[in-house]
Amino acid sequence: MRRLHEKTGTILRSTLLGTVASVMTFGTALAEDLPYGLKSGKPYDGTKITYLAPVATQYEGHSERVAEFTDMTGIEVEFEFVPFKTLLEKILSVKVAGDSDPDVINYLDAWGPALKDMLVPLDDQMDADGISMDRYFAAHAAGATYDGEVYGMPLRGHAQLLFYRKDLLEKHGLDVPVTWDDLVNVAAVIKEKEGLGVANYYSPKNGQNIFTWVNLLWSNGGELIADGKVVFNSPAGVEALQYYADLENKFDVNTSGAKSRDPYESSLSVGAGNSAFFMGWWWHYGSRILGKNTTLQADQIGFTGMPAYGDKGVTFALSMPSGINVESDDKEAAWEFLKWVSNPDLEKRNVIEKADRNVIVALHKSNLTDEDVNEANRGLHMAGAKSLADSRIFPQLESWPEIQQLIANAISDVVSNGTDPQEALDTAAAAAQKLVDQK
C-alpha cells in the first residue's frame, strides 16, 4: 500500500510539475505551450460553458479537478449532472428546443445516430490538434463515429467481464472458466456445494438482457443486421438463444430469480454473497460487487474476460462520448474543454487518486495497460483491455433502441414462457425489418 501511495504521489507531482512548467505565469498569465493541445494566451478567458453528464463518480472526479483547466484557459465550466435514466429525455428536450445550453453533451453511443444532427463534427478540430481516435479501442472509437465522421470524444466506456468468487473456486480446486461450457461445469459444482449460482438476468427491462446473449451470438458467428437485412434469427442466433435459455431451464446453474432480474440486481446479488458469478460491465466491480453496502472483500472476487463460445469469444462494448452542441455560442471554448477532459493524464489520475470514491473507468489503450493503473485496481484494466481487443458495438441505426427491445422481449419470452427460440426470433425479426426499412 505504501508503494502505491508513493507511486500515486509521484504521478501527481509529475503531472502538476508538467502543468506548472507549461503554464509559466509572469504577472499577466502569458503562457508558453499548454498541455493537451490547449491554446495559449487564454483567448477564451471569462467564457462560461455548461456540461451535461449523467451521475457517476468518474464525472465527479472531473468536476473536482476542473479548476486546473480554468487556471490554464480562463474558461469556467458548470457541470449539470442528471440520473442516467433521465439523460436521453433531457438531451431530446434540448434538441427539440434548439437550446444553446448545454454546450457539451455526454450521450450513449447507441443514441448517436439519432442525435448527430445536434452535434458538431470534430474531425477538423482533431486534425488541427493532432488527436487521433487510435488512442482508443476500435469499439469505443466506432461508438463516436457516424457515417465516417467523429461527433464525440469517448469519455466513459465499458468492457464486459466475468466476475467470480475466487475464494470458492480455490476452496473446491476449480479452474477459472474459459468457455461457456466451462462456466456451466464450474457453476454446477459451486451451486451444489455452496448453494450459489450464476447471477444471470433475463428481464427485458430497457432491453438489457441482450447484453449477455449478443456475446453468444457473435462468438457463434452470427450477426444482428447485415447489409440492411435483419439476420439475428439465423441458425447461429437460434442456437445462441437456446443455450442462453438452457442456463436457466436445463443446466440449472443460475441463482433463483434470474427471469425477473436485471443486471443491477444481478451484480448486487454477488456483492451480497447470494451468487458466485456475474457477467457484465466492469463498473459494477467498484460500486455494486465491492460497494459500501456489500459484504465481500476484494480478495474474494476474481475477474476475467467473458467466456468463449467454443474456441471464439467476441464481446459487446459500449461507450458514452461527449460532443459539442451545434447550437452552442461557445464552440471553440467547448472544444478546449473536450481536449482537457478527454486527455489520458486526467483519466489516469482519476482512476488512481480515488479519494473516497472507486473510479475505475478508463478508455485510453495506454491507461488500460499501464502498470500503475493496474496496480491501483488489482489488474482490472488489463482484463478490460483483453476483453476490448475483440469487441463490437450495436448497429448504428436510429431505430436500434426499438429493435433492441424487440430482441429483449424475445429472449424473455423464450426463457420465461418456453416459446420456441426460432419462433420468438422470427417474430422479432419481422418487426425489426420494418423498422430498418423505414430509414
Could you characterize the architecture of this molecule?
This protein has 439 residues and is an alpha/beta fold. The protein has 19 helices and 14 strands. It has two domains: 2-157 and 319-378, D-Maltodextrin-Binding Protein, domain 2, CATH 3.40.190; 160-316 and 397-437, D-Maltodextrin-Binding Protein, domain 2 (3-Layer(aba) Sandwich), CATH 3.40.190.10. 46% of the residues lie in helices and 13% in strands. Strands 2-1-3-13-6 form a five-stranded mixed beta sheet. The chain has a three-stranded antiparallel beta sheet with strand order 10-7-11. The protein has a two-stranded antiparallel sheet with strand order 4-5. β8 (225-226) and β9 (229-230) form a beta hairpin. The protein starts with a helix and ends with a helix. Mean pLDDT is 92; it is low at 1-31.
List the helices and strands and how they pair.
Elements: H1 2-22, E1 48-54, H2 57-73, E2 76-82, H3 84-97, E3 104-106, H4 112-115, H5 123-128, H6 138-142, E4 145-146, E5 149-150, E6 153-158, E7 160-165, H7 166-171, H8 180-194, H9 210-219, E8 225-226, E9 229-230, H10 235-249, H11 263-271, E10 277-281, H12 284-289, E11 301-305, E12 315-316, E13 318-324, H13 331-341, H14 344-352, H15 365-368, H16 371-376, H17 380-388, E14 391-392, H18 400-417, H19 421-437
Parallel strand pairs: 1-2, 1-3, 12-14
Antiparallel strand pairs: 3-13, 4-5, 6-13, 7-10, 7-11, 8-9
